[in-house]
Amino acid sequence: MRKNNALLTTNTANNFNPLAIAYDKDNSELYLAGWEGFEQHQAQIYKLNLNTSLPTLNPLPAATITSPNLVKGDQLVINEMRWDQKQKKLIFVGDAHSNNGNAKLDYGILGSYEPAKGLNVKYYPFNGFI
Question: 93: buried, middle or exposed (CB in 10 Å: 19+, 13-18, 0-12)?
Fold first, then answer.
C-alpha cells in the first residue's frame, strides 16, 4: 500500500485479494471487501485507518459475507461498495454463483455494515437471468 507515493506496507500475510473499496472521508478510513487466500465463496470486509503513519489492514468483527449453500469452488463477488456519510454505514452490492451448475445457488447480494449494528445482507435469486 502507498500513501502520498510512499510505500507504507506490503502485508500480504492473509493473501488478501480486494474486490471493492469505499472511503469514509470524515474519518480518513478505507474499507475493502475481498477474498482471503484462494477461497472465493465468501468475502471479508476490512478497514484501514489512513490517519496512522503505518496503516494496518484490520478485519471488521462479524463482517464475513457469505451466501447460502455456497461451498469451496463457488464464487461470491462484491462488485461495488460506498460509504454513506449521512447514514454512517457501508453499503455494498454483489453476486454469488455456483460453479457446479446449481442455478438455485445464483444470487444477487445487497448489504450494509454499520459499526454499531454489524452486517446486514439480503440475497435475491436470479431466477435464470443475470
Answer: middle
Query: Do 109 and 78 touch, CB atoms closer than 8 A?
Result: yes
Give the pLDDT score at 1. Answer: 58
Query: 105-117 pLDDT, tens per residue?
Result: 788 899 999 988 9
**Set of cell numbers at residue 84:** 454513506
Counting Cβ atoms within 10 Å, is residue 107 exposed (0-12), middle (13-18) or buried (19+)? buried
Burial class (CB in 10 A: 0-12, 13-18, 19+), 110: middle
Q: Which three cell numbers stand for residue 65?
A: 459475507
Contacts of 117 (CB under 8 A, 6+ apart): none
Residue with cell 496512522: 52
Report in angstroms the alpha-carbon separations of 29 from 38, 49, 77: 26, 5, 22
Claim: this prediction has a pTM higher than 0.85: no
| CA–CA distances in Å: residue 58 to residues 1, 61, 63 | 14, 9, 11
DSSP structure class, residue 72? B
